[in-house]
Design goal:
Layout lengths: L2 H18 L17 E4 L4 E3 L7 E7 L4 H17 L4 E7 L6 H10 L3 E7 L10 E5 L5 E6 L4 H13 L11
Parallel strand pairs: 3-4, 4-5
Antiparallel strand pairs: 1-2, 1-5, 3-6, 6-7
Length: 174
């Protein structure tokens, strides 16, 4: 058996792998059930999507080098401070190419929103910064877009969701 004959099956498998591409989770689609996720905050606390059921959640991706992100973050923080009593939660996840967490501690200490170190789930496939996902009280994705929120955007998207009743808790299994 020649080297060429031995390598032919391996080359075919390699080519098939390239053609199919890696198995990548699709980003959440508006109107669909939000895929499960786990957030790890900067202090190491883990928060799952199940823990957030019944609340309106904003997942925000930002970077320290992103000018629109730096404008949006104080707006999200102030909005959260006003709306948290109505069931709003806001989580801000920095991209990997931002400043180190140690340099961000003074900012994080001043924020009302929860800074996130890591997030699992299909929410990291973003096309621009900032990117925001909004999940309603029932666990459906209601907003998924790159671009900074304005106050008008927040009021248009978030206020109706905060006015929706929380879903009834699931009955315990018998």
């Amino acid at each position: 058996m020649t080297i060429r004959t031995r390598l032919l099956p391996a080359a075919a498998l390699f080519a098939a792998g390239i053609a199919l591409g890696p198995a990548v989770a699709r980003p959440p689609a508006v109107g669909q059930a939000a895929p499960p996720f786990t957030l790890t905050t900067i202090d190491g606390t883990k928060i799952t999507s199940d823990h957030l059921r019944g609340q309106v959640v904003i997942l925000n991706y930002w970077a320290t080098w992103c000018a629109p992100c730096r404008q949006e973050l104080p707006l999200l923080d102030a909005y959260y401070a006003l709306q948290q009593r109505h069931g709003l939660r806001v989580f801000a996840a920095m991209t990997d190419d931002s400043l180190p967490l140690s340099k961000m501690k003074p900012l994080f200490a001043a924020l009302h929103i929860t800074p996130v170190r890591r997030m699992t789930g299909p929410y990291r496939d973003i096309t621009g910064l900032p990117t925001n996902y909004v999940i309603d009280r029932a666990g459906r994705v209601r907003y998924a877009r790159a671009g900074a929120f304005t106050l008008d955007d927040l009021n248009r998207v978030i206020v109706p969701l905060l006015n929706e009743p929380a879903p009834a808790p699931a009955a315990p299994a018998a």
